[in-house]
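Posting here for the record, re: 6-O-phosphono-beta-D-glucopyranose.
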Amino acid sequence: MRQPAGKLLLFGATGDLSQRMLLPSLYGLHADGLLPEGLTITGTARSDKDDAEFREFARAALEEFLTADRKTDNAVSSFLERLFYQPLDASKTEGFAALKDKIGDISGGLAIFLSTAPWLFGPTIKGLESGGLTGTNVRIGLEKPLGFDLQSSREVNDIVAEAFPEERTFRIDHYLGKETVQNILALRFANSLFEPIWNAQGIESVQITISETVGLEGRAEYYDDVGALRDMVQNHMLQLLALIAMEPPARFDGTAIRDEKVKVLRSLRPIGDVQSLTVTGQYGDGASKGEIVKGYEAELGKPSDTETFVAIKAYVDNWRWKGVPFYLRTGKRLAERRSEIVIRFKPVPHSIFAERGGKLQSNTLVIRLQPEEYVRLLVMAKQPGLDRDGVRLAEVPLNLSLDHEFAHTRRRIAYERLLLDLIEGDPTLFVRRDEVEAQWEWIDAIRRGWDAAGVKPKAYASGTWGPNASVALTERDGVTWNE
Ligand code: BG6
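Prediction output follows.
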């Protein structure tokens, strides 16, 4: 089925993700005339609401989470007319018949968006089957967490696979919906400049940072069981790594791109010595954006060994990347909100400037994904002057600001892209089962290593760049984190 679905079913419709992201995204698509004509959106959750109450709920969500320039009264009211609601206890099959009645005829195709606690996947899939809400014209989008480790992720995937074959299963990693993440593909494969040196001969090291300033954000119950490794590295960071490291796919489609990504994920060297290749941390008291903030345990209300920071030195063991370290780091309550990839190239083989006192730095490519969007190539240039006391060289940026270049093009929420692709049935930006499983396999080995070595997170003050040991992780190799 590769035609737009006529109906959309949203599980967790009254939840946080729905309010902040899904409803505003669907509204954005609606307002720009991108949703299929007549597409209805049925929300479902436990709360007892009728259509009118759900529409009011959605109106309030749009009010709060959309900027004023995106809203017009007409578009809001015509969007709300698409919305319907059916209360459901997804743990019991009984309610699914009524859900099906509410949705009505699905012969024109149904897209389901499922974001639920892992233990509810089984009952929900069973319920969908019993209610006649599966079948060849139904596809399903799955939001994380999809399991807790390789085994539980296999269980979830097996349950889903009973009703939905892989080509109708769309696993969401919202980083893939980000424009700048997709731009990695354009940078690498729409330019001839980089690819010849995009390998161990040309590249010295790669850094990937996703730093956040937020703390628990009211998600204590989820986060404390999960930690930074599972919450961020298992999915978003490994997807970024795969896009940076993969071989050129033969075409831009779901099979070719995902085939190449999974090869990278399977080539990740298992982390053996966790003590020297990983650093974990947990934020303590400190300051964030000028405000005093509490440490993790105080926020949580109990002692905990959960890591809110992780840094890893990884290797991709294949011909292209032999010996090139990939430094990954992510954490909460860090100094800045920033997602970026920093590629450091090899130095020139011989410096003709050395005898004239000129000092060279290796070229660096910074791909900033957020909050700003830019690609910056740091190159050496001669400082103006007569050079009587030596040649002075300086590192200067060649700057491509995507914010500036595309200032008049709308920046969309990642979920706009992903929801539209789900509705239209394009799997390219969704994660295939083999990818998820390769990701878990690598992550599980790190966790096992931590358990065996009794690794406990090191404290770091909120508002800093994490524990000092993370500095040592790169400095030992003569590499400095880009800060
Ligand atoms: C989510 C994590 O997947 O990504 C959150 O569960 C994290 O903990 C979020 O805050 C970060 O996403 P973004 O788009 O704000 O970088």
